[in-house]
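Reopening this ticket.

The earlier resolution said the output was attached, but the attachment link was broken on my side. Pasting everything inline this time so it's all in one place.
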Amino acid sequence: MENKDKIIESINTDAFVKDLMHFIFDYGLGTYSKTDTYDYLVYLANKHSKEAFFDTNSNFDNALLFKVSETKIKNTRQNIALKFKGEERQNIYADFFIEAA
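Inline output:
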């Protein structure tokens, strides 16, 4: 898939890995469910891509790209908006659990 290769090449991998490692060191590997981890990885890939592919692609195109249903893409968009967007590395969901501990 030509589009897939174009997206992969557009991602700033250094920044992606740096953000991911900061997140892991700040919150731990076991903090998140499988769904939340998936959503965060999609958020980071989109954040560090030149075209912000996840925001600009249709739900249908993203569903084909990630091999999931359009409903999963819609839920991912909603989860990203609620949990990860905003201030850099601001994560209300994880911060809540850390403060509660």
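Reporter confirms the inline version is readable. DSSP finds seven helices and no strands in the chain. Residues 13-27 form the longest helix (15 residues).
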